[in-house]
Amino acid sequence: MLGFHTIQTSLVKLVPAGHFYQQLLQAVDFSFVRPLFAPFYSAGGRPSLDPVVFVKLLLVGHLENITSDRKLLELAQLHLGIRAFLGYDLAHPLPWHSTVSRTRQRLPVSVFEACFTHIVGLCIQQGLVEGHTQVVDSAYIKANASMSRLQPKRSRGAAEAGTPRGDGQAPRITATPGRLKHIQRFHAAIRKAAPKKAGKLVSNLTHYSPSDPEARIAFKSGKARVLAYTASVSVDTAQHVITHISADLADWRDSRYLLAIVDATQQRLNSFRLFITNVVADAGYCSGENYEQREERGLTGYIPAHGGYKGEHPGFLYDAVTDSYTCGQGKQLVFDQVYVDAQGNAKKRYLAKARECKVCPLAEQCKGKKAKEKRLHHTPYKAHYDRMLARLATRVGQRMRRLRASTVEPVLGSLITYYGLRHLSKKRQAGAAKVLYVAAMAYNLKKYLRFNPFQPGGLGIALPAPAPFRWLLLYFCNSHSTSRTTFYFTGYSRAHFPSWRIALDAGK
């Protein structure tokens, strides 16, 4: 007979035991969340959203590549595996999407960071993290703000006036007059080159977003400008586990954030008794200060110099002992002073003697017509640059550069494409940081769930056992994920001989 039939079954019976969320529920004990959230929950009043359910919901959103809380709850309403993962029965109503949003807003960033640190600890216990080599990189994540609604900032002498911003005031311009004149000349050159091209010329120094004042105008060559945040990540090279992630402002160079990223990563790994020895990054993180501070911290860096650095001056020989240059005519250029150029970079200047340049047959060709003497300059961190370039030229340095491209770039691509970071649905830097922490947790949990330390690469060779021990040596070549050679020594009788696993780094 056709008609409505009452469903009388258990939700657990409807979800396969091998389903991803069932495996995750069995592998991870999410009760660690409660002590972290306890200081922010009241003992009385109306019952709040269970913190374990809240964290699970956020993880499901990134695992399913969903950026909207409303869409997330719609999926959870229909998905039996997600219901079982959350601990909700078929007849139990799920929380409202607004409850999830308000709970996220009211909790501080430190709680999300503590949850992320706990997941990193689980990965370390499982053997996914070695800690000694960390690869750093960043990517722009589109903010929840529109370029078409940018507003100009207040000038220093402007009167207080109401703006569309919620607090009734636009931020004040903090750039120097010289910097503002440089921007005006730059805009004038653009208008002269393309007078008929429509568009508003904007800058982070002169404009801001009323809906998200902390979002910054970011751009890359060949791409349109967007309001974004910078997602900075540190990835361990063993199994590509994310050991640090942060939401930074997008109007600073990557090099400004390197030391903060390294310090935060080192502090997190040190709490689990792991220590960083190598830091790998691209040329965007290059600066003399970073090279110097990295050496003071006892870290070995593999960070290429940017294209503007010149290690040598053709026709001049530098002597590090006397800190001077010698030209092709045998004349010496001695150190004069340290000055700051127009871009704000410190440089060391070297001068030749005017009387010697005056009688030199190559004077006009060397120093020009107007200069009285030949002048050279280089960065005060020249020794640090030279050591870095020499290290990168070695086989290990070349291997590290290849390792960077194969380690951190796929991680950032996966986060943006498959873990809900194609754009941020939350505003402000704190909201962006919360989203990034949960996305990194989801990524690491999937690594944690799929990791099998005893999975062989497919090649096994049985060798004769040594007479005194009667052991069987099995050699597995599992270079599919890491550059390792793994030896398994298995006792002839498990009752008397334990199993040992010795991993040797073939590339070190």
Automatic annotation (TrEMBL):
<dbReference type="InterPro" id="IPR025668">
    <property type="entry name" value="Tnp_DDE_dom"/>
</dbReference>
<dbReference type="Pfam" id="PF13751">
    <property type="entry name" value="DDE_Tnp_1_6"/>
</dbReference>
<dbReference type="InterPro" id="IPR008490">
    <property type="entry name" value="Transposase_InsH_N"/>
</dbReference>
<keyword id="KW-0614">Plasmid</keyword>
<dbReference type="Pfam" id="PF05598">
    <property type="entry name" value="DUF772"/>
</dbReference>
<feature type="domain" description="Transposase DDE">
    <location>
        <begin position="326"/>
        <end position="448"/>
    </location>
</feature>
<feature type="region of interest" description="Disordered">
    <location>
        <begin position="147"/>
        <end position="174"/>
    </location>
</feature>
<dbReference type="InterPro" id="IPR047629">
    <property type="entry name" value="IS1182_transpos"/>
</dbReference>
<protein>
    <submittedName>
        <fullName>IS1182 family transposase</fullName>
    </submittedName>
</protein>
<feature type="domain" description="Transposase InsH N-terminal">
    <location>
        <begin position="11"/>
        <end position="106"/>
    </location>
</feature>
